[in-house]
Write a structure and sequence with these properties.
single chain, 186 residues, Butyryl-CoA Dehydrogenase, subunit A, domain 3, 2 domains, 84% helix
C-alpha cells in the first residue's frame, strides 16, 4: 500500500512546488537579494536549476526535494536582503550626515576667515572644494533616495578627507591673522 502511494506521489513532476520555488525566487529578486544577499540567492537559483534537471531525468523525488530547498533558500535570501539593505541604508545615511557636518564646519570656518581678512586667494581652494562637495552631496542624496546605497556611499567616500584638509588650511590662515605677535625688544 505504501509503495503504491509513494509511486503515485512521485509519478509526475512536482509542478506546484517548482512554481512555488520560482515565485519565491522572483520575490527574493524584487527584495534585492541579487545585490544584498547574493550567496543565498545564488544557492536558491542553483537549487531550482537542479530541480528542473531532475525533472528532465525523470527523478521526481529529487526534483521535489530540490524545489522545496530552492523555495526555502529563496525565502532566506529575501529576509537577508531586507536586513542587509536596511543596514546599507543606515550606513549610507551616517556617512552622508558626517560629510554634511564637515561641509557645514568648513562653511563656518570660511566665514570666520573672511571676517579676519584672510586673503581671498588663500581661501579659493577651500571654496572650490566646498562647492564641489555640495554638488557631490546633492548627487549622493539623490542616489540615497533612489535606494542605490552603494553608489551613494562611493560618491561621498573621498569628500570627508578633502573637506577636513581644506578646513585645516583655512584654520591655519585664521590662526596666522589672529595670533598676537610678541612685542619686539629694542
Amino acid at each position: 500500500m505504501c509503495a503504491v502511494v509513494l509511486l503515485a506521489a512521485c509519478s509526475g513532476p512536482p509542478r506546484k512546488e517548482i512554481d512555488q520555488a520560482q515565485q519565491a525566487i522572483e520575490n527574493a529578486r524584487r527584495a534585492g537579494a541579487e545585490q544584498y544577499a547574493s550567496e543565498a540567492f545564488a544557492a536558491a537559483t542553483a537549487a531550482l536549476q537542479q530541480s528542473n534537471e531532475a525533472v528532465d531525468q525523470r527523478d521526481y523525488r529529487l526534483a521535489l526535494s530540490r524545489a522545496v530547498d530552492a523555495s526555502d533558500r529563496a525565502q532566506e535570501a529575501a529576509k537577508a536582503a531586507a536586513d542587509n539593505k536596511a543596514l546599507a541604508r543606515s550606513q549610507t545615511e551616517a556617512a552622508l550626515n558626517a560629510t554634511n557636518a564637515a561641509v557645514m564646519h568648513l562653511q563656518a570656518r570660511l566665514k570666520v576667515a573672511q571676517e579676519v581678512r584672510v586673503p581671498a586667494r588663500e581661501l579659493a581652494p577651500a571654496r572650490a572644494t566646498l562647492k564641489d562637495a555640495q554638488g557631490t552631496l546633492q548627487k549622493a542624496r539623490s542616489l540615497l533616495a533612489a535606494e542605490n546605497y552603494t553608489a551613494a556611499t562611493a560618491a561621498a567616500a573621498g569628500l570627508d578627507g578633502q573637506i577636513r584638509s581644506e578646513t585645516k588650511v583655512v584654520e591655519a590662515g585664521i590662526t596666522l591673522r589672529t595670533v598676537r605677535r610678541p612685542a619686539s625688544k629694542r
